[in-house]
Amino acid sequence: MQTSFGIDFAPILPLWLIAALGAVCLLALLPAFLRRARGVWWRGLAFALLLGALSQPRLVEQTRETRPDIALLLVDRTDSTRSAEGHAAAIEAARRQLESRIGRLRDVELRVVDVPEGGNQGTRAFAALEAALSEIPAARLAGVLLLSDGQVHDIPPSGSWSPGEGVPLHLLMPGRAGEVDRRIRLIEAPGFGIVGRSVELRLIVEDLGVPRAEGQARLTLRRDGQAPITESVPIGREHRISLPIERAGPSVIDLVAETRPGEVSDVNNRVVVALNGVRDRLRVLLVSGEPHAGERTWRRLLKADPGVDLVHFTILRPPEKDDLTPLNELALIAFPVRELFQVKLRDFDLIVFDRFANRGILPPSYMRNIAEYVRAGGALLASVGPEFVGGTSLAATPLGSVLPARPLSPQQAILDQAYRPRISPAGSRHPVTEGLPGANTESTEASWGRWYRTIRTDARAGTTIMEGPDASPLLVLDRVGQGRVALMLSDHLWLWSRGHDGGGPQQELLRRTAHWLMREPELEEEDLTARIEAGRLFIGRRSLDSGPPPEVTITAPDNSTRREPLRADGGGRASAQVAAEAPGLWQVSDGRRQAFAAAMPANPPEFADLRSDPARLQPLVQATGGAARFLGDGQTVPEIRSVAAGRDAQGAGWLGLRKRDDHTVTGIAALPLLPAWLMLPLLLGVAILAWRSEAR
Questions:
Q1: pTM of model > 0.70
Q2: Do residue 105 and residue 147 come from a single domain?
C-alpha cells in the first residue's frame, strides 16, 4: 500500500467561463498597472482570490495498491534445441538461473511459457508468445526473455510487431558464436516411381557457418537395409542420384553424410526418403483353349480394370485339324506364337491359361520359355478343367515343372459332384481368401453357391487356400524361383458370376488372385510392415503360421534396440505400436523379415539449421531495445535489472526489465484549500485593504 498527495480543482463554473472572467480581470487591472495606481496589488489579489474560489482547489490524498511488473520467459523446447549437443542442457541451466535472479527482484513476477514442437511448421515461438501476452495486462509487462537457438519460423515483420511501448525483447542463446553445422538439403525427392524405371533424387550437402565451403563429403546410401553404397559428393553443389524402382510398394532410402569435425549435431546429416513403387499399366496375356460357359469370365475381369492392357487369344482348334474352312473365317489375325512366347514373353506381367490343352499349338521349347519366365519373376495363372487330365495336359509339358499339382489318373481325376467351395485353414489366414464374403468359418459353412466339377490332383508344392470335396485342393498358390503360380482346379467359377445358387465373390477372388500373382504389397501372405504417424511406430505382421506371433526387435535411429511383443488380431495378422519420436530410420525385425520406417519428413524446418544464430530475430530485438546474448553452457546468464522508462534496457553484463509502476487506487480523500467560510472574510478583508490603499 502507498499514499500520495496532490492538488486538483473542482471548478464551480465551466473552465472557459473562468478563463473569460480572468481575462476581464486583467483588462480591469491593466490601466491601474500602467498608471501605477495605489492599491493595484491588493485589487489583483482580490481578483485572484475570487477566481480561486470559483476554481475550488483541493488537496487530494490517494491510497494505492501497487501491482508487480510481469516478466515473460519463453523456453524453446523444440527438436532443434534438443538435437544440438548441449543446447537443451544449456537452456535448462539458464532457465533455472533466470528464475532465481528474477525472483530476487522487488515487485517483479515471472511467468514461464514453453514453446512446444510445431511439427512441419517449425518453431512457433511467436504464436506461444501471443497466447501468453493475451493473459497479461499490457500495463504490467516489463519485458520478454526468449531462451532459444534463434531458429524461429513464425517471426513477424519488425515494423509491425512489438510486445509493448518501451518493453524489450531479449534473446538468450545456448552455445557460442561461430558454430558450424553440416546438413543434407533435398531439392527434389519424388514420392513414387514406376516399377521398372528409375527416379532421380536431387540434393545438396551444405556446411553452414563456413564461408566459401569447398571440398568433398562421403555420402552413404542404404535402401531397405541392403548393403550400403558410398560415394563422394561436392560440398555446396547439387548432386543427383538415380534410383531404379525394382518392385511395387514402399521403400525407405537412408542417406547419410559423414560428420564434419566440430559441428553442433549430425542429426541433419541424415535424410530418410519414403519412395513408393507403383506399376504402370499391367500387360496381361490371356490364352483361352476349349470354349466353355465361363470363357468370358477372365476377359470381363481384366477388361474392367483400366490399368490393364489385355492381349487375348482363343484357340478353337489344333493346327492338324483340316475341314477346308477358309482361313479368313477362322481368325482375324494369325496366332503370333513366336512373337508372344519367345520375343516379347517377358514384356507381360501376367500370363493366364484358361482351359488350355496342349495340342501342338505351343512346342515344348515355348512351354520351357514360359517356365523360365516364371522362375525369373513372372506370374502364371492356370484355370483348368477336364483338359488338364491326359496326354494334352499342361502338366505333361515342360510347364508342368512349375505347376504346384499334378492330376491323378484319368479314372480318378475328374470328379463331377455338387459341392460348396471351402476356405482351407491356411486360406483363412491368406490375404487372397481371408475375409471373403460368405466364406466358411470354424462354426459355419460357406453360404455361397455350389460348383459341380473339380479336378483331383496330387498337390506337390504351394499352399492350398480353397478346398473342394473331401478337402481336395481347389485353388493352390505357389512361389517358384522369383515368380508365382496360381492353379484353379475347376472350370465352374463362372457359376458365381451368374448368381447360381446364390452366387459368390467371384470378382473379388479373381482380383485378389491376380494382384497376389503380380506382387501387390497388401496381398503378401508373409509380410512385416512398419510406418510412423504422429510420433508412433505402427508395426503390422501377417503370416500363415498358426502359432502365437513372435516378438519383434525394434532398432531406433541411435542403434539402440528393444523387444516388443505382437498382439494377434486374427486372420494371420498381428500388430503393435510404440512411441517413435526420435528422427531418422527405424528398423523392425521378426527374425525372418525386416521393415523400415522414416520418422521425419524430407525437409523438416526444425532440422534445416541446428546452430545458435541471432540473425533471424536481430531486427526485432533491436527494434524493441533488447539484446541478443550467447550463454555458452548456460552458466553465464547476464544480470537482470529493473530500469525506469527512458533508460537503456541493456548494458555490459546485464539486461533490463522496464519498471511499469502499475497500481490500483483503493481510497481518495479531498481537503478544500479555499473553503467558503474562509473565502468570504478573506475576500472582504483584501477588498477593504485595497479601498483604504487607494483612498490615501
A1: no
A2: yes
